[in-house]
Amino acid sequence: MTAILRLSEVVKTFPGVRALDGVHLEVREGEVHCLLGQNGAGKSTLIKVLAGVHHADAGEILWQGEPFAPASPQAAMRAGIATIHQELDLVDDLSVAENVFLGHEPSRFGFTRRHGAAARTRTILTELGHPEIPPGRLTRDLPAAGKQIVSMARALSHDARLIVMDEPSAVLAHDEVANLFRIIRELTANGIAVVYISHRLAEIREIGDRVTVLKDGRTTAAGLPARTPTRELVGRMTGRAFEYVFPPREAKAGAAPLLEVCDLSRAGEFAGVSLTVRPGEIVGIAGLVGSGRSELLETIFGARVADRGTVTLDGRRITGVGQAVAHGMGMAPEERKSQALLLDEPVFKNMTLASFTGFARAGFTAAGRERAAARRTADNLELRPRDVDRPVRTLSGGNQQKVVVGRWLLGHTRLLLLDEPTRGVDVGARAELYQVVHDLAADGVGVLLVSSEVPEVLGLADRVLVMREGRLIHEAPAGELDEDTVLDLVMAGSLMEGEAA
Amino acid sequence: MIAETALPKAPKYDDNLLRNLGLVGVLLVLVVIGIVTRPELYSDPSWVRDNILTILQQASAIGVVTVGMTFVIIGGGIDLSVGAIIALAGVWSTTLATQSYGAGGMIFTALVVGVAVGLVNGVLIAYGKLVPFIATLAMLVSARGLAAQISGKQTQVSANETINSLATAKPLGIPLLVWILALVVGAGWVLLNRTTFGRRTVAVGGNPEAARLAGINVKRHTVLLYVLSGLCCGIGAIMLTSQATSAQAAMANLYELDAIAAAIIGGTLLSGGRGTIVGALFGVLVFSTITNLFAINNLATEVQNMVKGGIIVAAVLLQQFRYRSFTNLLRRRNVGNNS
Amino acid sequence: MIAETALPKAPKYDDNLLRNLGLVGVLLVLVVIGIVTRPELYSDPSWVRDNILTILQQASAIGVVTVGMTFVIIGGGIDLSVGAIIALAGVWSTTLATQSYGAGGMIFTALVVGVAVGLVNGVLIAYGKLVPFIATLAMLVSARGLAAQISGKQTQVSANETINSLATAKPLGIPLLVWILALVVGAGWVLLNRTTFGRRTVAVGGNPEAARLAGINVKRHTVLLYVLSGLCCGIGAIMLTSQATSAQAAMANLYELDAIAAAIIGGTLLSGGRGTIVGALFGVLVFSTITNLFAINNLATEVQNMVKGGIIVAAVLLQQFRYRSFTNLLRRRNVGNNS
Amino acid sequence: TSNDTGDNAQVRTDTGGDNGNAAAGPKVIIGFSAPAADHGWIAAITNNAKAQAGAYSDVELRPVEAGSDAAAQRAALSTLIAQKPNVIVMLPHDGKELNATGLEAMRAGIPVINLDRAFPSAAAYRLQIKGDNYGMGLAAGQYIGEQLKAKGVSNPVIGEIPGIDSLELTQERTAGFNAALATFGFKVANRRPAEFTADSGQAAATSLLQALPKLDALWNHDDDQGIGVLAAIKQANRSEFFMVGGAGSKAAIDAIARDDSVLKATVTYSPSMASSAISLARLIGQGKGLSDLVELQVPKEITLASETITKDNASKYAKLGF
Ligand SMILES: Nc1ncnc2c1ncn2[C@@H]1O[C@H](COP(=O)(O)OP(=O)(O)OP(=O)(O)O)[C@@H](O)[C@H]1O
Ligand SMILES: Nc1ncnc2c1ncn2[C@@H]1O[C@H](COP(=O)(O)OP(=O)(O)OP(=O)(O)O)[C@@H](O)[C@H]1O
Ligand SMILES: [Mg+2]
Ligand SMILES: [Mg+2]
Fold first, then answer.
1. Pocket residues: Cβ below 6 A from ligand 2
2. Quick one: DSSP state of residue A257?
3. CA distance A355 to A350
4. pTM metric for this prediction
5. Average pLDDT of chain A?
6. Is A173 helix (H, G, I), strand (E, B) or coil?
7. Distance CA A341, CA A393 (A)
8. Helix or strand or coil: residue D243?
9. Residue B137 and residue B259: Cα distance in Å, rounded?
10. How many whole angstroms separate alpha carbon A423 and alpha carbon A210?
11. Cβ separation D75–B295 shorter than 8 A
């Protein structure tokens, strides 16, 4: 097999950051080449250089044997490189078909040929296993997973020789990932090369042919076989040795419930949800994408108004976010960029967003104390870079997530709601986050966790609730469940007594 | 599988349609107020017909400008210089020198001036990286200054009968200016909804980064948007000049505010990425119907103004209310009751 | 816990500082132009001193308004009604009835009117969910209408010597109005940068959803921002009334555009979430220095306007250029050379 | 120009003597349109017209608001024409921009009386009654020239504060002013336009005073904005020059009479022309002529003289101030 793409000594610098510092990469025709690396290692930057978004400061890129320096995204696409970017790059107010063909619309004299575009979109979506997504619908109506499929359809709509996928599985549920792998196999069977980025090592072992590992903008291992033992891969990335590291826990709940949710309902989203969380307990909610878990958390937090039912924290009714926060509830929402972060503000102000009033005296903020507290939290979370004055925008995705979680470590949080806390978070940071959650629980904080990664729910939680189509259908201590059981419940509700849903 | 549950039901209703229905409702309410307050006028069908045509004719120039403005706003910008462009194009096309070239020369001049000023706006914004607000505000000031300079601050009378007759011609019984408005609105609708240019406008305004990643030349497109707005102003300048049979540096005063307000009332998002041409037209019609209502009731200007603010607020609230209650209704119906 | 030394250095340069430096540069350039064109005036130190105070005094009312506007814009809104609020507050506080309560009554009235109108704006926007542009545009129209109604379209002369003397008083040789401007700017700076209110403003404007989910009452805060702007307008109304020793419905015409432009030139993001009070002040000073430059050179209005647009563009470009070249410099130094 | 509104309208009803025109005749419906008043002079125009119409038992005035620009006024007048009044009196935003509307009304058989701002086309009006903008400038220039000459100032520094600079009337006033000064060999050293409002007058005057550390004379086109101009002069603590106003507001006339400020004179541009216009509209509607003239009909054009009000004659003009 010949190398279709070869990078050597590629350097890319942003003001104050050397994001790529001598990267080597060689991708062969028809292979799935995985890129591994911690948050901020430079993976996204690397593929943006390939996609013509950034221009390398130095180094050499050979594409199909020729020197290659795409001046624009269009140039890269014309050369045969299609990219699915990490941040969803869709226009919400265009239809699915319009997004798929944005920039290369089928047209005659400038008039769009909508039926042609719709038909071709439908074909591509069907190939992708999603004939149910209507090409004419506005993209804003799709759930995150649907948007990811549209991004993928867009990449396939080009006649690409190389498709780069930056964490495509981060927002996908279990069965979706299997579907994605089927598509990747079909692509590679046709000689198309795929560069695949993911923080989940199991996926890489399953789909990857070879692996290149980045650390701090440098290639630390190039072209390893995908079956390389986890220990070695993780070691190359971080110096650690394990993927999921769940700290040992002795269940010690038993006090009176901290959070009591009673018969909570919101029309069209979820209904009749009752649950409790005790101090020091970690309760996990498993479920499919779109099963209404995010809405449930937001409603408990008071950010959405319930149609029916009550939420009480320590016996006090919660009816609004302000009150929830005041009484010690915190939430790390699902979409960190749009729901949690002030991207242009420094890290420390983001961390203290919910607690700066507490630091303040008589309405005057205390930036010094805030900064010091934020630094301590940044150390706890091993934030990289550990600079709390840097705008959050310049942090990698995983580190941004740490900032969001860190926000609730600063206040006097007694109940923490976590929605997909490790989405896009690297192996090392993930372990650190798990440790943080455990430490919190050990301090008596109750945690309600939503995650699409079943091992995470099982490994982290004391007690697991399974949610399906807006209802809780099962509850059991984590120890009594295994991955397959949970997946069965999530998909089919097969352990359900009445099969009501 | 994106479960059917995860995909919201296919909309049986359309955001934009509902909004526009809301605006039609507002228009109807205004007409009803007219009928109630001046029944004797409204009892005469030929007066009613004339009145409708008058409203449309009064809306024509600002309507054309609003179409261009809507494109600019959807594309993520704003154009504060539209009134000034009209003044400059109007004045330039009515200088004695230009008038000596006849109607063709005057129209050509107005359009070229509009396009040229739009081009300067676009280049300053796209390549000079100026904030649109500042760039077009600077253009507002400069273009009005230049117009004053060219006209020597005099009102320049158009001696060209062809130009002047544009405002009086009534092919098929409908004023020519209204035909022009209809044409521009129609063309704008097709351009926005049926061409790659329109789709790219939405992309550039809604998510410039995504547009760039999709290979769209965002800068060039931005320039084109301001050129389009300038072109609409050129057309508007000819329309206004023919109506006033003259042009001057102070003409089309504050058109920018009216055009922006009409676009927004019509459902265009000031932050870009969303908007409709038909909504903008309704926005313009609401304003021009309000003016008409005041005129037939002969309200004092200060009362007019006090009431006008209230009507605008009420119109938008009404529109929102209709919209919300309607979607709530649909939602309830789709969901059924959970127990 | 980690030793301070282990932490990375804080950034060595600051966006805002650089921007403001750019504006200071623009001001210096304007002054140099003044010196070159009218050396005989600038050779007289006492004239220069007077001139600086005059520029500051002329900037004082609009400066105060711009501080409020900057808060509103940083908080994600816009206030088109500032000029109209000034007119309404000015007219209301100079009616014969109000004047009979003396200076205290007049000041109180102006402030209350400002706050009340701001409150209405804020409630319409935060709770009525109106787009700020539309809500405050409606308020602009209504408030000017009400002002015309109250004043009977007459210029209302202030017979109150205390009010009128505000514009002539010069404690420590510096006009009282300039002191007021300094006070408001200082208070604004502290409020934005050192208080929880300022923090909330940035959060609400930068990402309202994030602010809400962090427990901030976004709606209430939005209302407070418009109230603050209204309050600044009330202060501005008194300042302007004392300067003109009168008030009328058309006063403070187009102040909204000037205030927004000054804020944006000063580095405030029109989309919210970022901005500086000091920058806004420099923006106001740039405008007022331009006016002064035109006056001492006796430029004709039309030339003035043409040049003014150019100066604004040049100022912003200069500022950007400085900024970019400076950061490029820093970047080059860090990186070394590329092949 | 003051807080007392309305009571000071300039009305003339000569009922006595052998003036046959005063006797009530057939009913005349007069349509009236003037721009939205945000300025004392325009407000006085409207007030005068209403007051004068009220003084006749055989006149019904139908005022239509003309809004804030020419387009709005065109729209308002179309609806007025449709109502077929006997005569229309209008003060156009701009004569040239409203020319077509004048023609439309005349074609519809409604005589049009143009107040103050001339139509270019003679077929567009029946009667033109206006002030003399050029003459106003001439009068101001003449007064200033004479005063300075009397004082023996050879190379005077003269300032000018016009109103809205893009208006043609401003241009005419400035042209007259320059022409008169030229006869003395003088010229304007600095010209800072305001916007007919007191606050803009203050700003313009402050700039002007700053630009001219020494000043001999100042013409401010408009007494309403003059309130701000005088305030600025006081704030700058300047008094080495004298000032001439324009239009002839009550406050200005009083100040001239008191002679306690730099304001020494004002040149009139009286809104009383609106009262005259209504009287003449009535006569036109009734087919009568001016009784002192031999002609059977009202003439086609009347231009009011611009008079110079000084301390000496201020008392005579006091009741004409608006
Ligand atoms: N536009 C930018 N300006 C400044 N710094 C940037 C920019 N984009 C990325 N960086 C920095 O470059 C480094 C590499 O970031 P990159 O996004 O490539 O990491 P990544 O490997 O994709 O991480 P993740 O797994 O979290 O997505 C990070 O330190 C990041 O903060
Ligand atoms: N703003 C919205 N408008 C319309 N429907 C929405 C909106 N937000 C969510 N939904 C719908 O609500 C349902 C549940 O949404 P959501 O995707 O948040 O569930 P989830 O279990 O949290 O899944 P995920 O794993 O993606 O977080 C879905 O049908 C989704 O499409
Ligand atoms: Mg990445
Ligand atoms: Mg979710």
1. A 143-144, 269, 287, 289-295, 334, 452; B 5-6, 8
2. -
3. 10
4. 0.88
5. 86
6. coil
7. 9
8. strand
9. 15
10. 24
11. yes
* Pairwise CA distance, residues D230 & D213, whole Å: 16
For A3-238, CATH gives 3.40.50.300
Subunit contact C331:A15, Cβ cutoff 8 A: yes
Residues making up chain A, counted from first to last: 501
Distance from CA of D149 to the nearest CA of B (A): 32
Q: Give C-chain residues touching A360 at CB under 8 angstroms.
A: 195-196
Q: Looking at residues B314-338, what average pLDDT do you find?
A: 57
Q: What is the CA radius of gyration of chain A?
A: 23
Interchain pair B211, A92: CB under 8 A: no
- Give the domain ranges of chain B: 4-38+53-325
> Are the Cβ atoms of C295 and D190 closer than 8 angstroms?
yes
Q: What is the mean pLDDT of chain C?
A: 88
Burial classification of residue A147, based on how many CB atoms lie within 10 Å of its CB (0-12 exposed, 13-18 middle, 19 or more buried): buried
Q: Which of C80, C142, C305 sits opposite B145 (nearest CB)?
A: C305
Other Cβ atoms less than 10 A from the Cβ of D20: the count is 9
- In the chain, the amino acid numbered A388 is V
Give phi and psi for C138, each to the nearest 5.
-60, -40
- Parse chain A into domains and list their residue ranges: 3-238, 259-340+408-500
Tokens of B269: 């998002």
Q: Pick the residue from chain D with its C-alpha nearest to B57.
A: D75
- The closest-lying atom of ligand 2 relative to the alpha carbon of residue A419 is 27
Cβ atoms within 10 Å of A249's Cβ, excluding its own: 16
What is the separation of C-alpha C266 from the centre of its chain, rounded to a whole number of angstroms?
Answer: 10
Give the residue ranges of chain D where pLDDT is below 50.
1-7, 15-17
Name the residue with higher pLDDT: A401 or C10.
A401
Topology of domain C4-38+53-325, CATH: ABC transporter involved in vitamin B12 uptake, BtuC (1.10.3470)
pLDDT at C206 over 80: yes
CA dihedral for B239, B241, B247, B251, sign (positive or negative): negative
Give D179's contacts (C-beta < 8 A, 6+ positions apart).
D134, D137, D138, D141
R_g (Cα) of chain C, nearest Å: 22
Subunit partners of chain C (3 or more CB pairs within 8 A): A, B, D
Taking CB atoms and a 6 Å cutoff, what residues make up the pocket around ligand 1? A 14, 17, 19, 37, 39-45, 86, 394-398, 424, 426
Touching chains, A (3+ CB pairs < 8 A): B, C
Closest residue of A to C206, CA-based? A342
In this structure, the dihedral spanned by the alpha carbons of residues B192, B196, B202 and B208, taken in order and rounded to 10 degrees, is -150
Work out whether the CA dihedral B17, B23, B26, B31 comes out positive or negative. Answer: negative
Sign of the torsion formed by the C-alpha atoms of D254, D258, D263 and D264: positive
Residue A65: Cβ-neighbour burial (10 angstroms; 0-12, 13-18, 19+):
exposed
CA atoms of D119 and B2, how far apart (whole Å):
71
H-state helical runs in A137-272: 144-157, 174-189, 201-207, 230-238
Lowest-confidence pick of B151-160, C113-122, C169-178: B151-160
Query: Which numeric CATH code is attached to A259-340+408-500?
Result: 3.40.50.300
Place of tokens 């150390």: A379
List pLDDT tens digits, range A32-82. 999 988 877 889 899 999 999 899 998 899 998 889 888 888 889 889 999
Beta strands in C215-334 (DSSP E): 246-247
| C-alpha distances in Å from residue C157, one per residue of A360, B303, C91, D38 | 46, 23, 10, 15
Which tokens is C266 given? 């000063």
A446-450, strands of its sheet edge to edge: A329-332, A415-419, A446-450, A282-287, A463-468, A471-477
D35 and chain C: CB distance < 8 Å anywhere? no
